[in-house]
Amino acid sequence: MPSVDQNLNSWDREWGHDGSEWSSSWGSNEAMWRHSVHARIGRFLPTDALLEIAPGRGRLTQYLLPQCKSYLGIDLAPTCIEACRQRFGAEAHARFATTTGTELSAADDASIEFAFSWDSLVHADAAVMTAYVAELARCLQPGGTAFLHHSNLLAFFDQSGQLAVDNPHWRDPTVSAELVAQACADHGLHVLVQELVQWGVPHHSDCFTLLRRPTYAEAPVAATTRLEHPGMNSEMAIARDLSAAYWR
């Protein structure tokens, strides 16, 4: 499984690109943002205080910055943080900080209205995910919300304890939708939505979890909405075709 050190070694280096290469299946970063990301989080934007976990080199940061009054990007890789500082240095409301991989200490208690992570925490193991959930319980404002894209591979182990599916995209095998949901429950967070996603494979390797820190007087919310996405490749293709036709 990808450990914190393995992730640091993988991402704290020169990529040869700014991350846009991983958006090519949508046609562009903008198409991915418009058709896949904003479609899921647009309800929570604009926001006062936004936290992006693992922004990389700003692949989606460029679209998040105009949507908030205060932005904080936290990444494991110092080279990514430096790249973002250079790229977005003119944005007075933005700051960037590193993490050891298990904390979000750059975010003050109850300071974040919306937290977001896309296409990065899929490589984080169970210890990291549970630690980040605990940190979100601390740094989200009461009523604050977070959208996390993470692995679901733990759901595909057979009775002999072997992974029964292929893992071509380096998803972490110790994390599942159920594990993240339980971590949220353990820390008093409400899971609003869990969307299981086939990310270029014929099984639900990924999960989008939308969670909320309840207000102090808030009654328990309804049961979690569970969705099973038939395939991100189809969504990518639709976004690519629509962008080519209407946004060229």
Explain what you see.
The chain is an alpha/beta fold and 248 residues long. Helix content is 30%, strand content 23%. It has one domain (4-246): Vaccinia Virus protein VP39 (Rossmann fold). The protein contains seven helices and eight strands, in the order H-H-E-H-E-H-E-E-H-E-H-E-E-E-H. 41% of the residues are buried.
Topology readout:
Blueprint: H1 4-11, H2 29-41, E1 47-53, H3 61-64, E2 68-75, H4 78-87, E3 94-98, E4 112-117, H5 126-139, E5 140-151, H6 177-186, E6 190-197, E7 206-212, E8 225-229, H7 232-246
Parallel strand pairs: 1-2, 1-4, 2-3, 4-5, 6-8
Antiparallel strand pairs: 5-7, 6-7
Helix pairs in contact: 2-7, 5-6
Short note summarizing the structure:
With 248 residues, the chain is an alpha/beta fold. The chain is 30% helix and 23% strand.
Entry keywords:
30% helix; single chain; 248 residues; globular; alpha/beta; Rossmann fold; eight-stranded mixed β-sheet
Structural class: alpha/beta
Helix tally equals: 7
Query: What distance separates the N and C termini?
Result: 41 Å
| Gross morphology | globular
Average pLDDT, to the nearest integer?
94
Proper CATH architecture: 3-Layer(aba) Sandwich
Secondary structure tally: strands: 8
CATH superfamily: Vaccinia Virus protein VP39
Report the top-level CATH class.
Alpha Beta
The parts where pLDDT drops under 50 for at least 5 residues are none
The portion of residues assigned to helices is 25-40%
Largest sheet: 8 strands, mixed
Spatial strand order of the main sheet:
3-2-1-4-5-7-6-8
Report the C-alpha radius of gyration, rounded: 17 Å
Number of domains: 1
